[in-house]
TrEMBL record:
Transmembrane segments: 6-26, 438-460
Keywords, in A-Z order: Glycoprotein, Membrane, Transmembrane, Transmembrane helix
Family named by the database record: Belongs to the CD36 family.
Localization, UniProt: Membrane
The name this protein goes by in its record: Scavenger receptor class B member 2
Provenance organism: Hymenochirus boettgeri
Principal location listed in the UniProt entry: membrane
Length: 483
């Protein structure tokens, strides 16, 4: 081996080692990955990110579970309600973004999302048009609450309830309870108060409609602002801790998140059906379809009452009137109906609330809301938004029918709106993650090469120095000795 080749090997070895260490210290290739991810994180017409935002490929399912009351007579006499969970009734949810409009040089984009629900029989327990559910008579309970301060109206309401044989409980099909039915009592109210609808349904007017125009930031100025909500129905940046009304904050609408996620990031989500935003924090690291994810979930603190989390005092309405932990009064968003939201089966709610109903069994895995996000790209890999609709029921003076009833947060229905990445998108993301891993490992590959060259260099130098030892070469060579 020529001497120069040995020196070249040695020099390259040192060079590669130095380069690899410099690259590692300077995070160069990590930064290249980060820059690429950041550059991709912008809504711009024509890009794949944009297409996926306009019509997200993974299917979204909305599943409803109802609580069928088995002892209505006994509840009226003051006994604990017994409920039986019936579900799921599953609907595929289609939600393309429409009326998309870019403003301010492409830094903002406005859009509406029309949600359409299509029933999926093979993912459901029965036919929503046939299955009957007995539950609290929400229109009647609302009317009782709203009329509680007027003796005269109370007399009229009582007479009407008698005449139409309406009571504290009602039985309707799943379809009617969700999508609306013409209610006897509401029809009466409607004749004197035309702005009150004669139809009741938990998701009435929610099919094939949108919840208003959102204005998002595109992420053009800063990837951290990608799809951050700026405006909802003309309302701008309201402070979400102190505002009681149906408000909003910065944060996304639950479909896309910032890339390069850290475990100490806090995710703010706005939800128009919660009438507020909630936040989620890192909970665990999981793997979904071979993709590593961070699981984020709202901490118990989000719905804790003011004695446990003073920041939540804004949700005590009227001021000072706090509910037990785990409950959210959304009455003001529901035309005064005494609707209280919680997690399904009162998960994370006060023990007294859970124990007030027989048939309620909170299970963390089934009943918590969570988001599984790819830490590198911020892509939603899997998510489930779960909540429960309850009605506040109590004794109201002047209404004998409520005379013996306990004060209850009566569960009516819970839902699970879930999404899981489709196989095609998962495959695409896995190859992006692989590429990123390869690129991020380039310094180590260079370092490896440097080490291999270093070993070759060492071997060669040892051999050469042995060959150079004077007078020994010839004697040690057996070939020469025998010749
Ligand atoms: C996006 O680009 C296409 C083709 O250039 C155009 O037809 C479409 O109107 C654009 N969309 C928006 C929201 O600007
Ligand atoms: C858009 O960009 C142009 C050129 O960069 C600038 O002159 C203009 O003020 C910008 N307009 C808005 C609304 O930001
Ligand atoms: C919602 O509307 C769509 C189209 O208007 C219809 O096909 C679908 O059956 C409706 N879903 C329900 C639950 O009524
Ligand atoms: C709910 O309870 C009512 C009354 O007991 C019963 O008629 C109905 O069949 C039950 N619903 C389902 C879906 O089991
Ligand atoms: C979102 O709002 C919170 C509270 O108002 C603020 O502290 C935070 O910096 C905002 N986040 C972003 C990304 O603008
Ligand atoms: C918070 O809830 C607990 C029980 O869950 C209750 O004892 C306490 O009074 C509530 N705090 C306020 C301020 O209402
Ligand atoms: C819910 O809030 C409304 C006002 O928005 C209030 O009148 C009602 O008393 C509250 N309900 C409960 C159970 O605290
Ligand atoms: C949604 O949550 C319910 C429990 O609330 C669970 O039984 C169901 O399997 C979940 N659906 C999906 C698609 O994950």
């Amino acid at each position: 081996m020529a001497k120069w080749a040995v020196y070249v090997t040695g020099t390259f070895s040192v060079l590669l080692l130095v380069v690899s260490i410099v690259l590692l210290v300077a995070h160069t290739f990590m930064n290249i990955v980060d820059v690429q991810v950041k550059q991709a994180t912008v809504l711009k017409n024509g890009t794949e990110v944009y297409e996926d935002w306009v019509s997200p490929p993974p299917p979204v399912y909305m599943q409803f579970y109802f609580f069928n009351v088995t002892n209505p007579e006994e509840v009226l006499t003051g006994e604990k309600p017994i409920v039986e969970e019936i579900g799921p009734y599953t609907y595929r949810e289609y939600r393309p973004r429409e009326n998309i409009d870019f403003h301010e040089n492409g830094t903002e984009v406005s859009a509406v999302t029309t949600k359409t629900y299509v029933f999926e029989a093979d993912k459901s327990v029965g036919d929503p048009n046939v299955d009957l559910i007995r539950t609290v008579n929400v229109p009647v309970v609302t009317l009782l609450e709203l009329s509680k301060d007027s003796t005269i109206i109370k007399k009229i309401v009582e007479a009407a309830l008698k005449a139409y044989k309406e009571g504290m409980f009602m039985t309707h099909t799943v379809h009617e309870l969700l999508w609306g039915y013409k209610d006897t009592i509401l029809s009466l109210v409607h004749t004197v108060q035309p702005d009150i609808s004669d139809t009741f349904g938990l998701f009435y007017k929610m099919n094939a409609t949108d919840d208003g125009e959102y204005v998002f930031l595109s992420g053009k100025n800063n990837y951290l602002e990608f799809t951050q909500i700026m405006e909802w129905n003309g309302k701008k940046n309201l402070d979400w801790w102190t505002t009681e009304s149906c408000n909003m904050i910065n944060g996304t609408d639950g479909t896309s998140f910032h890339p390069l996620l850290n475990k100490d990031d806090i995710i703010y989500m706005f939800s128009s059906d919660l009438c507020r935003s909630i936040y989620a924090v890192y909970e665990s690291s999981e793997t979904v379809k071979n993709i590593p994810v961070f699981r984020f979930s709202p901490p118990a603190n989000v719905f804790a009452n003011a004695s446990i989390n003073p920041q939540n005092s804004g949700f005590c309405v009227p001021a000072g009137n706090c509910l037990p932990s785990g409950l959210l009064n959304v009455s003001s968003c529901k035309q005064g109906a005494p609707i209280i939201l919680s997690s399904p089966h009162f998960y994370q709610a006060d023990k007294s609330v859970i124990n007030s109903i027989k048939g309620i069994e909170p299970i963390k895995e089934n009943h918590k809301t969570f988001l599984d996000l790819s830490p590198l790209t911020g892509t939603v890999i899997q998510a489930a938004k779960r909540l429960q609709v309850n009605v506040y029921v109590r004794k109201i003076d002047g209404y004998p029918i409520t005379e013996n009833i306990q004060t209850l947060f009566f569960p009516v229905m819970h839902l699970n709106e879930s999404v899981c990445i489709d196989d095609e998108s998962a495959e695409k993301l896995r190859s992006i993650l692989l590429q990123a891993r390869v690129v991020a490992n380039i310094p180590f590959i260079i370092m490896g090469l440097g080490i291999i060259l270093g070993i070759i260099f060492t071997i060669l130098t040892c051999r050469q120095s042995r060959q150079r030892e004077p007078g020994t070469d010839d004697e040690r060579s057996p070939l020469i000795r025998t010749s």
